[in-house]
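Q: My labmate handed me this sequence with no annotations at all. I'd like to see what the chain might look like in three dimensions before we decide whether it's worth expressing. Could you predict it?
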Amino acid sequence: MKKIDLVLKEALGKVKPEKEEMELLNKLLKEFIFKLGKNLKQSRLNAEIFVGGSFAKGTIIKKDIYDADIFLRFKKGKENISELTEKMLKGIGHEKVHGSRDYFKVKIDENFLIEIIPVIKIKNPKEAENVTDMSYSHVYYVKKKIKGKILDEIRLAKAFCHANGCYGAESYIKGFSGYALELLVYHYGSFQKFVKAITKINQDKNSRIRSTSPKLGQSKEIIDIEKHFKNKQEILMNLNDAKLQSPIVLIDPTYKQRNVLAALSMETFLRFKKICNEFLKKPNAKFFEIKKTDAEKIKRESERKKLEFVSLTIKTDKQEGDIAGSKLLKFYNHLENEIDRFFEIKKKYFEYNKKESANCFFSVKNKNEITLNGPAINDKKNKERFIKTHKNTFIKKGRIFAKEKINFSLKDFLMKWEKKNRKKMGEMSVSGLEIK
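A: Here is what I predict for the chain of 436 residues:
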């Protein structure tokens, strides 16, 4: 066997749940569904239960804490289906999660969490009021089309993306959803072919696409598994520009007006492409293992290289999950831009803990001196104000500039910045900033 085949065989052994483990999880799931069914019958709600996600499709990977999706399909009506679901869950300990449509979490075991998601029963995807309403058709399609050995190839893809921080369509990840990976591996034929295909997609940070630009469209990776459209050009003309901005356009086999990879950002794609290249050059099962960032090690390295290292904990009062994660990431990016004005960032790190806070750090080098842009020299009022504020000024091409010495540390800068910008932090939904 080739080295890559041996590596994939080893990786699959690590990421595929044991038979006994799956039997226990399925037993717990079956017992819970029975209990849920009794509650549903007693409440006399016009809804049906179906299991979705990786459990239903047979693509689940090994985790410390497993989660399963249970959907309640309601016939379309005027009622608030989230409220109806919550009433039906009376007697079952649960946590309410706010979103575009509220759903519920139930912990049935230390290592097993179930999400109960109310959806509208639809015949046509056009009738969907929420993307979760399309879940039934996604599960049906995958179970019908994807069977046998390809399921293990999908497991490898999911584990690979998960280990490298590219798994999930949430706005703080902007990566590959489980459904997208199932379709991509099915389309390319195997995990290895999928990874190779990613490395051959020529996209860069400046790539953009408009439906009126045929040349750009031809270089774009556009996948239409069910051949809903005649060619790429028809796709470019039929989908609006917002749905065409992702590095890969993947037409949903169950609804041709939807790009399954619309959430994939260029930044995540380029990072994933780099990882794919590294894996193909030096295959190793470690690519499928979640890497813990050793902050202490990076701190010691920073000290050795005479860099300043500062770690932070950012807190928010927003709902945990996609909302909290996206707010925390947005603030982290804003803070990074502020730091970058005065310091050269050598290493940085952000990790959302899935709750209401995120940990991050910056390893930086002081820029010592920076040039500040001032007003045009004919702007007398602002010119005088700028000269009063800054001592070392000079004129170039009709504009005034100033040289400013950076004689403060990153920690001092952040402490002063926090005091000065507490109102802005509140506006950005940040409730606390701990500087260590």
